[in-house]
Design goal:
single chain; about 550 residues; mainly beta; Jelly Rolls; 4 domains; seven-stranded antiparallel beta sheet; five-stranded mixed beta sheet; elongated; Protein NDNF; NDNF_Fn(III)_1; secreted; heparin binding; glycoprotein
Length: about 550
């Protein structure tokens, strides 16, 4: 009676060890002695859950062990174990102790039979290593087992603290936790450009069977390939960045960190992680198995990894990664600049290509003139290979430079917007004969609200100390046209592009005192409650106009 009460109160895991120890003979090998010694410390270890992915944290040089006993009911029970290293290579092995595990099952249920104990004591036992592996690849062990066997999994990291995931299942009839890979899991590179790489891969059987719950996610970086999704997550985190639990599912804007940029277009979601070692780009494209990666840098080697992700279980499988080097950027075509000649350059904002102009100086002093017509443009000027000027320009900009005869100047232009930009360029040694007129401090047009009436408005603008011609134009517009009119204006175009009916007047004026170099004009004959766009053009000695910033004014509705 006392003995039966002892078994009742003994903790389950100690009961299993105590029962198993009855069946263990004197150890004959080092692995057997280690295994049997560890059984006495069973309460320090963990039972591995069946049918569930388990995250295991490993400390450097400290082994960690998990156990499992396969359930009774079948003479041979199939099982699979999948281990995914999430960082550095690890060592792991499976050991089996073939003994009367059926007694363990009875002990766990409280069915204690002294004859069973006696049989267990007499039953032969054997400890053996049935699998071991060292590395950082995802490995799966598939086996068949007698139900009278106790298994131990041992994990060890010798490089540093790390973590892994372990998945044990004995149910081979239901669906897989991990999506399936095709027979050929390679990623094929089918196209390489200066800034793009096109990839394709064979469909996962899981996509064909469960299309609504499966998607492909692509990882792009410049360091190396990743053998699992959790390895990629760990690498990004170790770069000093916090990430949501999984790359594949961290797709909500509110989960993004300041170092992340999210782009959503054409049902594809991209997240760019700006880490210290460069960009790590992740793109989830649904079930498409061909993708062109855009916006890459020329002459750069990139590594590409494709993961097929189960959206219900958050589990993933990795295709065999690949890499490709983008093509070198072609040498930009160089156009020669000639003294005094004006050229207008249109820059493609989408391609972000450089436009190059070259000039060989025939004088020691020269002047570059840039007039921004549309968009935003960056100018970079070098003299004999050394940078002498670099900035974004707006309006009209002069660069006066000194050097030697036959110095070579290279001007490089590019649009800083995705839309097209345009700019006029001139180089000249003649400072006393400027191409463009002398400009006032500001090119803004001012309107006076108190002077507005139902049929007139009053505007003002600044002049200069040089007598010049000013022409005023007006255009009637609708409320929904304001933004488009202001954005699409070509600041280099002159009055020749305007309809004759839009011309209001032309006048000459100047003032030696700049503080008094202001002129006003009242435009009459307007409709009440109507929006008008007003423009002023300034003409210099060369006849080339400079356009003031457009001004939108609305007449009063009631007077």
């Amino acid at each position: 009676l006392k003995m039966s009460w002892f078994w009742f109160y003994l903790p389950l895991h100690l009961l299993m060890v105590a029962c198993l120890c009855h069946s263990i003979k004197a150890p004959t090998t080092t692995s057997q002695r280690s295994f049997q010694t560890d059984l006495f410390n069973f309460y320090h270890s963990l039972i591995l859950a069946d049918g569930k992915e388990t995250t295991v944290h490993l400390l450097k040089d400290i082994p960690k062990r998990y156990y499992f006993v396969l359930e009774e009911g079948r003479a041979l029970a199939p099982f699979t174990i999948t281990v995914t290293p999430c960082d550095v290579p690890i060592e792991w092995s499976i050991l089996v102790h073939k003994a009367s595990a059926s007694f363990l099952g009875k002990a766990a249920r409280g069915d204690h039979d002294t004859q069973e104990v006696s049989k267990s004591q007499k039953a032969p036992s054997m400890v053996s290593t049935i699998f071991n592996y060292k590395g950082n690849s995802v490995e799966t062990y598939m086996g068949m087992s007698s139900h009278s066997a106790l298994y131990m999994l041992e994990f060890l990291s010798t490089e540093r603290d790390t973590h892994i995931t372990v998945y044990l299942t004995t149910d081979t009839t239901s669906g897989h936790l991990y999506p399936e890979l095709p027979m050929d899991p390679r990623i094929d590179v089918i196209g390489i450009g200066h800034t793009t790489v096109t990839l394709t891969w064979k469909h996962s059987p899981s996509v064909l069977e469960h299309r609504e719950n499966i998607q492909y996610c692509l990882l792009v970086n410049v360091k190396h390939n990743y053998k699992s999704l959790c390895a990629a997550e760990t690498a990004i985190r170790s770069s000093g960045m916090k990430l949501p639990p999984t790359l594949a599912l961290s797709l909500s804007p509110y989960l993004l960190e300041p170092q992340q940029v999210m782009i959503l277009s054409n049902s594809e979601l991209s997240i760019i992680n700006k880490v210290g070692s460069g960009e790590v780009r992740q793109i989830c494209m649904g079930t498409k198995n061909t993708y062109t990666v855009p916006n890459l840098s020329p002459s750069t080697q990139y590594y590409f990894d494709v993961f097929v992700v189960n959206l219900l279980t958050n589990a993933s499988a990795a295709y065999t990664g690949t890499f490709a080097r983008t093509l070198e950027e072609p040498e930009p075509k160089v156009m020669e600049l000639k003294d005094g000649k004006v050229i207008q350059v249109v820059l493609d904002g989408k391609k972000q290509e450089l436009y190059s102009l070259q000039y060989q100086a025939r004088h020691k002093k020269i002047q570059f003139t840039f007039q921004l017509c549309h968009g935003q443009v960056r100018v970079h000027i070098t003299k004999n290979g050394k940078t002498v000027a670099s900035e974004n320009i707006s309006g009209l900009r002069y660069f006066s430079l000194k050097g030697k005869l036959l110095d070579t100047y290279l001007v490089q232009l590019r649009s800083t917007e995705e839309s097209n930009s345009s700019v006029k360029v001139q180089v000249s040694p003649h400072f006393h004969k400027p191409l463009f007129p002398l400009l006032p401090e500001s090119l803004k047009i001012k309107s006076f609200s108190k002077l507005r009436t139902c049929n007139s408005v009053t505007i003002a603008w600044l002049g200069t100390q040089e007598e010049s011609k000013y022409c005023v134009y007006k255009k009637r517009i609708e409320e929904d046209q304001v933004w488009m009119e202001l954005q699409s204006v070509d600041r280099c175009s002159g009055p020749e592009s305007r309809h004759k009916s839009e011309k209001v007047l032309c006048k000459y004026f100047y003032d030696i005192n700049l503080q008094r170099a202001v002129t006003t004009e009242t435009i009459k004959g307007l409709d009440s409650g109507t929006l008008y766009l007003f423009d002023v053009y300034l003409f210099g000695p060369s006849g080339i106009p400079v356009r003031y910033h457009s001004k939108v004014v609305k007449t009063r509705k009631k007077c």
